[in-house]
Every structure is written in C-alpha cells, then in structure tokens.
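#lab-general

N.A. 3:47 PM
ok so I finally got the sequence cleaned up, no stray characters, all 526 residues accounted for. can someone with queue access submit it? mine expired

B.Y. 3:52 PM
send it over

N.A. 3:53 PM
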Amino acid sequence: MKLKTALVGTAILAALGVTPALQAKQFKWTSASDIPTLDIHSQNNALGNGVHAAIYESLVYYNSQTFKPEPLLATSWREVSPTQVRFTLRSGVKFSDGSALTADDVVYSIMRAMTKTSNYGVYAQGIDKVVKVNDSTVDFMMKGPNPVLLNQLTELRIMSRAWAEKNKSVEPKDIKTPEESHAHRNAMGSGPYMVKEWQPDQRLVLVRNPHYWGNNSTNVTEIIYTPIKAEATRVAALLSGEVDLVLDPSPQDLARLRSNTNLKVVDGVENRTIFFGMDQFRNELPGSNIKGKNPLKDVRVRKALYQAIDSDSLHRVTMRGLSQPTGTLVSPQVTGWSEAVHKRLPYDVEGSKKLLAEAGYPQGFEVDFACPNNRYINDEEICQAVTAMWSRIGVRAKLRTLPLVTYFPMIQRFDASIYMLGWGVPTFDALYSLQSLVRSVGSGGDGNYNVGRYSNPRMDVIVDRVKAETDLPVRNRFLNEGLQLSNETVSHIPLHNQIIPWAMKKNVDVVHRADNRLDWRLIKVN
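B.Y. 4:20 PM
back already:
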C-alpha cells in the first residue's frame, strides 16, 4: 500500500511538471499592496502585471538575465514588410481548462487590449489590427514601422476568447468605475500557474497549471501572496518564517535583515522613476484658496515647487540611501536617457520664493496633494517630507494618502491637483514614458497616465515622430529632446529612481529583475 501511494504521488508530481527530486514546495511572499485586478487588460499596474505573468502569457517575454525578448507563445516572427510582422504560434499550448490556444485567441486578446476600457493601449501603440493567417499564424498590421513592437508585446497577455465570451468579459473592466466583470476576480490563462482563490487585500493563492506546456525549473507548486501594508508587520512575518520573501522591505530594516544569518537581501536599481504630476488643465483648482485661476499652469510655480524639494535630504534621511536622485522621467536603463537630462535643478528655497512672487503668489497658496500609502518605497513618508519643504516657501499642501486600490482610479478620474506617481518602463524605451505621461491625451495610449493633462504641441510632434522612426541615432536624438523638453517646461517634478531590495530566507533562490517582478519559472525553495 505504501509503495502504491508513493507511485501515485510521483505520478501527480509528474503531471504537474515536478520531478520527484524537486518535491512540492510552497512559496509565500508579501508586499505592501494587493493587485488591483485579475483582468489582464484593465489596469496597467506593475505589481499586477508581474502576478498576471504567472497566470497568463504573452507572445514574447523578457529573459530574466539579458532582458531581451525571447519566444513564449510565439516561436518565431519575421517582417513581411515594414508594416506587417508575422508570428508563428507555439503548438500544443492549452489554457488551464484544457482547451487549446489558437490564433483566434491571439487576435481577440490584442484587439481587447486596444478597446476603450483597456489601460493597455500604450503597449498596442502603432498596431492597426491583428489578422489570423491560419490556426497557428497571425499577422500584425502596423500603422507604420515600430522598432519596439517586441518590447511592447511582453505586456500584452493572451486570454481565451471563448472563456471571455462565456463569462461576459469581452471588454476589460473600466478602472474608473466600480462595476466588476467576471475577469476582474477570476482568471484562466496558459501560464505555469492558475488561480485557486483570491480574496482582495487578504490572500491570493496560485497552484500549478496541470496543462502547462513549458518545463519549469521551479519546484514551487503553490504560491501564496499576502498583502501587508504595515512595514514592521511585513518584516516580522519574514523573521518569524510566515513568509519566504518580502518584495519591499523598509529601508530602516535593511541593516538588521542583512545581518541575520537566516536571511539574505539582494538589490539593484529599478527601471522606475518616482515623480509628482500637477493639474495643468483646470482653470481653477478644487480646494485651493486661489480663485479664478490655476497656479500650476504657470511654469514658474512648477519650477518653484521643484526647487523647494531637498532631494539630498530625501535620499539620505527618508530613503536611507535607497534612491538615485534624478532630474528626468526615466532611469539610466532606458533608451533615451542621458547624463544631461538626468541632472536636477538645484535646491533653492530663496529662488523658489522669488519665482512664486514673480508669478503673483508672494504669500504662496493652498493646494490639494494626493499620494499612495502602500505602493512605492516610503511613499507616504516622502510626501510628508515634501509637504514640510513646500511650507517653507508658503505653499500649504493639503496632503491626503490613499491605498493603491483607490488611489489609482482616483487620479485617473483627474481628482488630484498634485499627485505622486512611480513610472516603470516595461519596454525599456523612453517612448513608453513620453507617450503615456506627456503626450496630449488622445487615443491609442496617448496620454493614458497624463492625469495632469499637460499639453505641448512640440512634445506631441516629438512623440509621434518617435513612434515610427527606425533610424536609431535619429530616434534616440528625438527621445532625448522629448525628455529635455519635459525638463524645461517642468511637465512633472522628478524625484528619484528607486533602488529595490528584496529580502528573503536563505533557502530561496530568485532572479532579481530591474522591473521588480519575480520570474515564476525560476523560483527555487531549497
């Protein structure tokens, strides 16, 4: 009987893609916030995108060591013409319900990402339509040449058309409204894991997909994610062994964690820049004591707010060294970055007061200031420190902090005068940032996170030129010009690039990535 039971257990592990030598393991991890949705085309959120990659797959995905796009659901691709790219799909791929993935699902999913309620239009920029050639081949028909198409496709994951239709989730959930669809709380993909349960803000459990086509090197058969907002509680959970990994340990705890012989900490610069955006659209700011006009429309006011921020103090005290102060919207890993655009304006309190007086606000003004309190490293603490810095120049920022799940829909409704945002760059190309953040709000991903509604005709020309420019030196020159124009007009107030530490048990092996996400195929728990 014991032998029979052992053989059955071995067979089950084999069906899950786990060899007997790699016995089933749980992997328990945490960070400050929960994912906003399971709908893969609803809310473009980095934490959510990383979790979605365990459940759903894209045509191509980044190699975790080289960060070059490599085959996933597509095995090959070629240019038929500068505006037509043909992808050959992997054969034998099944969704977790056992149904086959076909070209119809690919066509449907890419077009779903381009619908009005999708927040993923920026990844589909340049795509006119996707056409089925046969069951294993699709053609991407482009509006023009697109040198970063493969990078964009790493974030466009594929959903079963039949499943979406059956469950009335044909279009993505609109993040600006409270209405939910089946795809918001449920998922069915072709990835290495599938959802066992999700209780928002409490617990997400993933288990191995028995129909997964790939050969995982991981021995993890169950993933349990528990969002824990309080920094001390997250660290306590790691120290007590309740979790195996903390994605965002607090800076003040790192020395203690590094010295613990049962733990290890790995870190590096993330491709994410933290900055403030400002409402440059309304003629009057809600809640401000200035009536009949909007101070934030004046570049002198925006520059005054920028130069009143002591970035060295934020780096040294608030971030405890876990930041790289910057003067631009992208980090050094991103194409288009340069030392020139990276340089910050000098910290100058008296200069800020002078600029405010020149703009007609010698006594300063009151302004709404919104920040998340569980999304970025020390986000709330940063905003509290900046509120105090602005008070020195007479700007009375009325700070309110919100959890991620309500914060992002709020700013997408344009309900904040000054707001914090952290912008990672999944394509590792500055077009993604310029198009999303400073291109005038339009269609196809233009200005999809330009929630301050900044608008500059020259910027629009630059962004539109870059979309289809294939001469790389010329393209890089335009990217740099766009970043410089953003600096000169103070479209946003850049703060720093995040340095991200991961803290974990000694027996956990993961690959640290600049996009701050785990590669689920490579995790080992020894």
